[in-house]
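for the writeup, i need someone to sanity check this before i put it in the appendix. the sequnce is what the collaborator sent (i think, or maybe the updated version? ugh). structure was predicted straight from it, no edits. if anything looks off just tell me and ill rerun, i have time this weekend
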Amino acid sequence: MPPVKLPAFVTPALLSSIRGHPQLPHHSWYFIAGVTLSALNRPDEIANVFKHALETGPGRSDAKPEHDEQLQMARKMREALVKAAPIGGLPKAINALFAVKAVTPPALLDEPLAYSPTSRPVEVYDVPSSRILHRGQTFFDKVYGKVSKRVMGQMDRSGTEDLGITARLMYGYILSNTSVLTAAESSFVLVAGLIPQDVNPQLKGHLKGALNNGATVEEVKAVREIVIRICEASGMTQIGETVPGGWGWRGEVANL
């Protein structure tokens, strides 16, 4: 039996409200929406968002971008989905990236063994791991600020030190690479991926981490607002205390 085809909910009105948010940084609305939809397990809607972005541009005004800017948008979308994998799950990232590839013009794809905008293949095979892990630790310390040692120590003492090792690998090889997305944009990815999962303890740290990575309070609140807007359009809502489970948040979404 084929899977049920879910109704579309990313309407032109929703796209317009997201793109038009006055506090949202330029060149961010589409990859923030893409990460949110990946966390919601709606790769079909990510494809629609990306097609719309290639036609209308990365900002609030309607203007079809030239090839170079389209390439930048494609790389930002792909990198955002890669960076969402550690917090949202690799299977969802795989499905999202293949959905984006299906609607991406061939000239906007980065093929294997060709130029890598992130240089991750070089980092994996040719750069000493100590250098990458040090970069990741520096990024982690910047995100968590004065509590970074305590947070990492808690993971090391979670019952298995492997949790801390996993975090170090994730931050080193994935999150701290800022070749395509800036540190602030990487934080927007984390915020967008966490809100749909109803994980306030982690979200609180990354809302503050976005500020530590150079975003303004207004920008972080704008990212939070449009992610919630997308989630609510998908059917998420705040669930009551008497509800044993369901699709929604168990409390107010963390804020600055």
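The mean pLDDT is 95. Residues 155 and 166 are 9 Å apart (CA to CA).
thx in advance!!
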